[in-house]
Design goal:
This protein has 5 helices and 13 strands. By secondary structure, the chain is of the alpha+beta class. It has 2 domains: 4-76, Gyrase A, domain 2; 89-223, Cyclophilin-like (Cyclophilin), CATH 2.40.100. It has a 7-stranded mixed barrel. Strand 6 and strand 7 (139-142) form a beta hairpin. Helix 1 (25-40) crosses helix 2. The N and C termini lie far apart (40 Å).
Length: 234
């Protein structure tokens, strides 16, 4: 690991720890997150950890550029990885069906698997939450098995239903609300990702793990799931 610090704005610095995405990065990223929060204290406005970087947004009335650089270098000197087992493991029930997951046949065909085998593969891993973004509660997770790697849709949908579970390249994610999107949709969950946060916090946090669990239509409906088919096709 070779740390680099880049200027992102007059009151923000980007700390780059790695150049490639890897689940093993998160132990270092979360360790850096904790160290920087402690170091900046009330001078910190926001800290955004991601796959390989952390964006540090500080109060320039309390710190100047040089002071912020000094704090970062001091905080991350001798950085060590943390125990990523401390992150929460989320069990997410998913109804996998072509009516709500129209790319099931596409992804299974590309992977050379049956639809049932694809579902089993997607459920057979604890995915690391690398970062939050795009929409409130939207967690970018990975890495999916290389066999399931599928590029984003050439033409994004204007409307993707809340709870839609998708794949793009080697990442997987859940759409927390109705929104545009270009990921390959495999199914739908009824777990709320941001309503859960009545305190204004999302369900997932970077460093958490997510395991998907296939359920039947009957189970999905019994839990209040919306079975309205995905109408718009790419």
């Amino acid at each position: 690991m070779e740390m680099r610090i880049e200027t992102a704005a007059m009151d923000a610095l980007m700390v780059r720890l790695f150049d490639t995405i890897d689940e093993a990065n998160m132990a270092w990223v979360i360790g850096a997150d904790q160290a920087l929060r402690n170091a900046f204290g009330p001078a910190l406005i926001d800290l955004v950890p991601s796959y390989t970087t952390l964006l540090v947004h500080y109060d320039c009335q309390q710190l100047n550029h040089a002071g912020a650089l000094t704090l970062i270098n001091q905080a991350l000197s001798g950085l060590k990885p943390v125990d990523t087992q401390a992150g929460e493991l989320h069990d997410i029930p998913v109804w996998y069906d072509e009516s709500v997951g129209p790319e099931l046949p596409l992804v299974s065909k590309r992977a050379g698997l049956s639809v049932d085998e694809l579902i089993e593969q997607h459920c057979n891993h604890d995915y690391c939450v690398f970062a939050l973004g795009f929409a409130p509660g939207y967690g970018f997770m990975g890495l999916v098995d290389e066999a399931l790697t599928t590029p984003r849709l050439k033409t994004p949908r204007r409307k993707v239903a809340a709870g839609s579970v998708g794949i793009a390249d080697r990442q997987t994610a859940i759409y927390p609300l109705l929104s545009p999107g270009g990921w390959n949709i495999l199914g739908r969950t009824n777990v709320p990702l941001f309503e859960h946060a009545k305190r204004g916090e999302p369900l997932f946090r970077p460093g958490d793990k997510v395991r998907f669990r296939a359920i039947s239509r009957e189970e999905f409906e019994a839990d209040g799931g919306d079975t309205t088919p995905m109408e718009e096709r790419p």
